[in-house]
Amino acid sequence: MLDKKAGLKRELKTLLKERNAMLIAHNYQRDEVQEAADITGDSLALSQAAAQSDAKVIVFAGVHFMAESAAILSTDKTVILPRLDAGCPMADMITPEELEREKSARPGVPVVAYVNTTAAVKALSDICCTSANAVSVVNSLDSDEVYMIPDRNLSHYVARTAKKKMEWWNGFCPTHERLTTEDIINAKEEHRGAVFVCHPECAPAVVDMADHVCSTSGMYKYALSSPARTIIVGTEMGILYRLRKENPDKTFILPSKALICPNMKVTTLEDVVVSLREMKNVITVPEEIRLAAKKALDAMLKAPRDY
Ligand code: 13P
Ligand code: SF4
Q: Atom 2, ligand 2: which residue's CA is nearest?
């Protein structure tokens, strides 16, 4: 088993060099994939990395919409998604037809699309956002009214801070929605004095209990700077790999065993190696959709990070 892993790591290193490739991995990926990656990060950092990299090939260890965004931003690169079945249920909760209907009901109201959307939906949106810049993106718009898709929880969180009249689509992340206020009460009782950091994809009642709300990479920053010794973490369990590595003197508590995204966990190190070896699972986007979606992504990349 150990020999197999060592062999895979060796082959990956050789392949990355031979193909002038870069492995980028989301913070929720398996430990073995994060460990092998050139860059790990949140959705915003990974979009920026994809747009700026000089590599010829990007192996995107994440879910489909992330690889698709990389393919939209960088036509001069081949973008590979090691497992084509790594989707995002939230991204599939709104179709282009449904968005068209919502737009017709609100003429002139700009649409902010969370990056967790398909390229075809981004193409119909004015600007994208991630959990790391959603408030800045919404506040950057000229209009007093904003329609946000697809995550009702992120939208609800943004609506509290942004100075806009907001409406939103009723989508959600099944993984984050599984975290309950009960889970937090229990974790706080068991770990007196612990602070609670939470992703804005969690339900509003859970977000209300948080000491800090941020993107996954925001959590690394918070953990490093917080004086707290014990931190309850309200997001997918993949985050624990780097949190524990970077803060060996602190304790991180996952308040629910349900905080696991099956889509983020399908990709193994072997899948990464095989996809790069065979140059398979290349993600492409039809040019008309790509150009329109790129406008929304480029607009987002100009906005500052909230945290
Ligand atoms: P971030 O890493 O951008 O916070 O994204 C969370 C997420 O659920 C991605 O699917
Ligand atoms: Fe989608 Fe949620 Fe999984 Fe992220 S954690 S990929 S939003 S289902």
A: 173
Q: Which CATH class is domain 91-172+288-302?
A: alpha beta
64, 65, 258, 94: which is closest to 176 by C-alpha? 258
Domain ranges in the chain are: 2-85+264-285, 91-172+288-302, 179-258
In CATH terms, is domain 179-258 a member of 3.30.360.10?
A: no
Eight-state DSSP code of residue 295: H
Ligand at minimal distance from the CA of 260 is 2
User: What would the two tokens of residue 178 be?
Assistant: 């599984």
Confidence of residue 303 (pLDDT cuts 50, 70, 90): confident
- The phi and psi torsions of 193 (rounded to 5 degrees) equal 90, -5
Nearest ligand for residue 92 CA: 2
Instruction: Check if CATH label 3.40.50.10800 holds for domain 2-85+264-285.
Output: yes
* Average pLDDT across the chain, whole number: 96
Q: CA dist 6 to 121, 258, 260, Å? A: 41, 31, 26
- For 48-81, the pLDDT digits (tens) are 898 899 999 999 999 999 999 999 998 899 999 9
